[in-house]
Amino acid sequence: MNVTLRPATDADLDFLHRLYATTREGELRQVDWTAAQKAAFVSQQFHAQHQYWHENYTDTSWDLVLLDGEPVGRLYVARWVDDIRVVDIALMPEHRGGGLGTRLLRGILAEGDASGRKVSIHVEIFNPARSLYERLGFVQAQEKGVYLLMERYPTAVPV
């Protein structure tokens, strides 16, 4: 498995939109909307999120996750003085649950350990990925509505 990252560009917006849509499928199954209404909602939400993140997160890498050169996900990471914030990590459904997300997060945790910075991430309270974050050592730091801020402090502070 050759996993690499590369900066996302405007040419990747169609893939990123499709990826985002997969992250909303479960909740959209619960609403009595037409396919067109669901598509319009997903499109509006994707564009609003994309714009918000790019306007409000500085020092951030906006990367595609590539598997053997093909895009399979996104990994957005802000690197601040005392915190590495995982803004978002998402994988296409066929690549979830197989260890790829764990591998990516372990790389970020190693970066936090090496630099003496905590790693943090926001997660919805009922998101199944929360258990992965807990297994990797993240703990709840704050609750804001439906979101938790989870943090993992470095295991070794550099000398």
If you had to describe this structure to a student in words, what would you say it looks like?
This protein has 159 residues and is of the alpha+beta class. 38% of the residues lie in helices and 32% in strands. The chain has 4 helices and 7 strands; from the N terminus they run βααβββαβαββ. It has helices spanning 13-28, 35-56, 100-115, 129-135, and strands spanning 3-7, 60-67, 70-79, 83-91, 118-124, 139-144, 147-152. The relative contact order is 0.12. The mean pLDDT is 94.
SSE map:
Layout: E1 3-7, H1 13-28, H2 35-56, E2 60-67, E3 70-79, E4 83-91, H3 100-115, E5 118-124, H4 129-135, E6 139-144, E7 147-152
Parallel strand pairs: 4-5
Antiparallel strand pairs: 1-2, 2-3, 3-4, 5-7, 6-7
What's a concise summary of this model?
The protein has 159 residues and is an alpha+beta fold.
Radius of gyration: 16 Å
The secondary-structure class comes to alpha+beta
Largest sheet: 7 strands, mixed
User: Cα distance, first to last residue?
Assistant: 34 Å
Instruction: Give the % helix.
Output: 25-40%
Tell how many strands the DSSP assignment holds: 7
Q: Which percent range describes the beta-strand content?
A: 25-35%
Q: Runs with pLDDT <50, length 5+?
A: none
Descriptive tags:
159 residues; alpha+beta; seven-stranded mixed sheet; 4 helices; 7 strands; 38% helix
